Amino acid sequence: MGSPAYDQYELIAPEYARTFAGEFESRPFDRAVLRSFADLVARSGGRTALDVGCGPGEAAAELAGCGLQTEGIDGSAAMVSLAEQQWPEVQFRTADMFDLPYAPGTFDAVCAWYSIIHTPAAALPELFTEYRRVLTEPGWVLLGFQTDGEPAVYDHAFGRDVELTFLRHDTAAVCAALEATGFTVYATTMRARQAQLEEPTAQAMVIAHTS
């Protein structure tokens, strides 16, 4: 199993949440992708979504605001606590995204918004298989991740000493892992790095469905 670095996020949760509070206000394109994803889910008859690796809950709140009945999970209890305080209209719980505590076919959509950035490419098929397990037929998945760059290793971040490696996934490799686990890619897009937002790399988004 790929390590999602949950223990490191226990250390940095408050500062991380402050750093990315209101992130979609300064990233309207990213917000539009999330809203388009929610529309695709609704148009296929879907009503429920799971945000895996939800962090402080910004993406989960966006999906809920689009009318989807949304839950969020994160392996960091500190992140879940912050999300619960900020977004009481969304249900959050602490769980490992490689071992989701839900029955097969529980959700119409899975969103993984920057939650695969600590998962090695070789572990993505295992992870996507777990996402697919909890999806209905048809079901949808949205991935957001850093791309077009080398991995970055941090020993200090968000005001704390940490051991964090941020992986920049190749979009074609991510799509191949999705296809290998039974998904059909619907759309891919890449947004250029925004220096004024202190982004280190370009950003990729991929939408896929199960049938």
TrEMBL record:
Any matching Pfam family: Methyltransf_25
CDD domains associated with the record: AdoMet_MTases
GO molecular function, one term: methyltransferase activity
Family annotation (Gene3D superfamilies): Vaccinia Virus protein VP39
Entry-linked InterPro entries: Methyltransf_25, SAM-dependent_MTases_sf
Methyltransferase domain ranges (all copies): 50-139
Protein name: Class I SAM-dependent methyltransferase
Organism whose genome encodes this protein: Mycolicibacterium peregrinum (Mycobacterium peregrinum)
Lineage: Bacteria, Bacillati, Actinomycetota, Actinomycetes, Mycobacteriales
